[in-house]
Specification:
CATH superfamily of the largest domain: Metallo-dependent phosphatases
CATH architecture of the largest domain: 4-Layer Sandwich
Distance between the termini: 32 Å
Number of helices: 14
Shape: globular
CATH topology of the largest domain: Purple Acid Phosphatase, chain A, domain 2
Structural class: alpha/beta
Helix content: 25-40%
Largest sheet: 10 strands, mixed
Length: 474
């Protein structure tokens, strides 16, 4: 059990927000209830003894309807014979049985930063000069097949192939990365990152235009200015009849003063001084909380994906903790964080109103060729939403983080594979490209230790997520 049953999320599509257990008689059954009511009145009149005031008479007087007259002996015998007669199938009123609500689950998976260093870009280059990045997602294909909501944080901007490709510090990644994301089955891509403006305003606009070629993917975090296109501040993804509002924000681009041209296009997590345009990293953008409150009114589930925290730190900052609590109080149900390039803890947060919010502070990277050992340990968030007639709740028994390891080679740097930590080994660690490239030691036991320390009881296994037996090694 990871923190208890979970928060009950009232569902607008099931029993209305703030549902407290009151069940109303469905409209289609009202005629049947009136038939039964007047049948009862008739029976009470027929069976009443002489000299007593019939309940039916009292109701009739109250309703200004002429009271039924007491019957004589002959009439009484006739009435008794009618009431004593056995009911036949034809005489019984037809009732329509209400179908029982069939409960079901909706699953969400999310992976961290798709960090396209040039070693990853060059891995996708084909002999004919084209690019194909489908190999990045082959190792998680069975999870993409099983999940309903599939989220990836596209760390680097797809700023236009005509600009050429570049890595750190000012990234520009091939649009074929986006094609591979869509082909793999992701239906949500996050673009509010600190690298969103690496190719300036033109790169953001090019990226937005690219994603219009994939309407099956909900792209979040960047948008054209209001003057060019209407901005949908609260995007909603409907899955199996449940509305999920999904919001994405970043602490800022990679500079402390942000122009209005950028802030008009990039969803900012932190407040901006309107005069100096300086970002205040300690204060949440009021628009974020307003969006969450709006989402709470129109959706069944509210998910917030903030790009925040300190790079390479496995401990959330005070600002992360403060912002997470503010999001919780505003009405968020789930928080899925990215940016630190390492995993951070997962926990339940309590709201002022008594609700609960599940917070993954950081999932770490998905792919990269970073040089730190901790950067190679990453997590896939898996959340199971259980849908009942009353609403939606997070089922803690099948919710948590699946630890994974990104493997790459050296000289040249090339992506190799995403492994489950449970299927990794010291033998694989000993040939990881990070050892010569980063000039560090790299240990399987260190990865296991960090997983136990940070992910802890929230660890999930492949078998738990997919309900399958363990894979046979070999």
């Amino acid at each position: 059990m990871r923190g208890g049953k979970g928060r009950r999320i009232p569902g607008k599509g099931f029993a209305g927000k703030g549902f407290v257990g009151l069940r109303l008689i469905p409209i289609r059954y009202i005629p049947v209830y009136f038939i039964l009511l007047f049948s009862a009145v008739f029976l009470l009149v027929g069976c009443g003894e002489r000299g007593e005031v019939s309940t039916a008479n009292v109701w009739a007087e109250d309703l200004s309807v002429p009271a039924l007259q007491e019957t004589g002996e002959e009439d009484q015998e006739e009435t008794d014979s009618l009431t004593d007669a056995p009911e036949t199938a034809e005489s019984m009123p037809e009732t329509e049985e209400e179908e029982a609500f069939e409960e079901y689950d909706i699953s969400l998976m999310a992976v961290g930063d798709n960090l396209m260093h040039m070693g990853i870009v060059n891995t996708g280059k084909q002999p004919d000069g084209s690019y194909d990045f489908s190999m990045l997602f082959e190792d998680i294909a069975e999870y993409l097949e099983a999940a309903d909501i599939k989220i990836i944080n596209q760390e680097t901007i797809l700023g236009g192939n005509e600009k050429g490709f570049s890595g750190y510090p000012a990234f520009n990644s091939p649009t074929e990365v986006g094609d591979a994301i869509a082909a793999a089955g992701f239906n949500v891509v996050l673009h509010a990152t600190n690298h969103a403006a690496d190719q300036k305003v033109g790169g953001i606009d090019s990226c937005i235009d690219f994603w219009k070629t994939h309407p099956e993917v909900l792209m979040l975090g960047i948008h054209k200015p209001d003057s060019e296109e209407p901005v949908n501040r609260v995007p909603v993804l409907t899955i199996k009849g449940v509305d999920f509002a999904i919001l994405n924000y970043t602490f800022g681009p990679n500079y402390e003063v942000v122009s209005s041209n950028v802030s008009d296009r990039l969803e900012l997590l932190c407040a901006v001084n309107e005069k100096t345009r300086a970002i205040d990293y300690t204060v949440i953008n009021p628009q974020v909380l307003e969006d969450i409150r709006t989402a709470r009114e129109i959706a069944d589930v509210v998910i917030v994906c903030p790009h925040w925290g300190t790079e390479n730190s496995m401990t959330p900052t005070k600002a992360q903790e403060k912002f997470a609590q503010q999001m919780t109080d505003a009405g968020a149900d789930l928080i899925v964080g990215t940016h630190p390039h390492v995993v951070q803890r997962t926990e339940w947060l309590e709201s002022e109103s008594g609700g609960r919010t599940l917070c993954f502070y950081s999932l770490g990277n998905y792919v990269s060729t970073m040089k730190g050992a901790k950067n190679m340990l990453e997590g896939m968030a898996w959340v199971t939403f259980h849908v009942t007639e009353e609403g939606v709740e997070i089922n803690s028994e099948k919710t948590g983080m699946l630890p994974m390891v990104c493997q790459y080679s050296y000289n040249p740097n090339r992506f190799e594979k995403i492994y489950l930590l449970d299927e990794y080994s010291q033998e694989l660690a000993s040939v990881h490209g990070i050892i010569p490239y980063g000039g560090i030691t790299f240990s399987f036991q260190d990865l296991v230790g960090w997983s136990e320390e940070v992910i802890g009881d929230w660890k999930l296994t492949r078998e738990e997520i997919l309900d399958v037996p363990p894979r046979v090694a070999g």
